[in-house]
Amino acid sequence: MQIHPTQAKLVVALVEDDELLREEIVHHLTQNNFLVHGVNCGSGLDDLSAKTAIDLFIIDLNLPGEDGLSLCKRLRKSLPGAGIVILTGKVALHDRLSGYSDGGADAYLTKPVSPDELVLVLRSLSRRIKPLNSENDWTLSLKERILQGPQPEQKLRLTSREKMLLVALIQANDHTLNSDLLCDLYSDSISEEAITKHALEVLVARLRKKLKAVQSADAETAIKSVWGVGYQLCLSINLAN
Question: Residue range 79-105: average pLDDT?
């Protein structure tokens, strides 16, 4: 089954530690007009998500490091509108129920799966995902580092550090992150060095000022300080490539 080439491509992240199976699924989905990125673990997905806006996730349950169910829970909390498909060898009913109730999966498929069935499931999920964007949402272009608001004049060019800060907050539970974790974020980047809490405060203050300059006068603060924790993002921002 081939998807018509004029249809918009969806970005899929496949988390599967079996290299051969991962390559086979990536190949098949690519042939069916998806843009597919394959990784072998949760940390690999985190690295990918910081650089790429993902529409749909395919998650194996048996993964090295963080297990697939935990990863699904985290994704569902941080990205409630995402499409999540569990693809696993676990066929027991209690595993399936846990995948839906605890992991928040939209679909639970067992291996071996029909490649065409997987394509149909992803296309079905895409019809729910695409309408989620509100007319009041902002959009962050990861490649161009452009933050675009609902109005044409609400357009900001971000620095690399500002983009990293927003991406981290967008994907965090409740869009809130500890200051220490945010400082560590930069030490994990090849192009950045670790920053101090004071430097983080300056970074947040500058970004707030940028946002305030293009927001309406009565708009709430885009990034709030959470006492004893860190910062919370209060804007609805969608990621784009």
Answer: 90
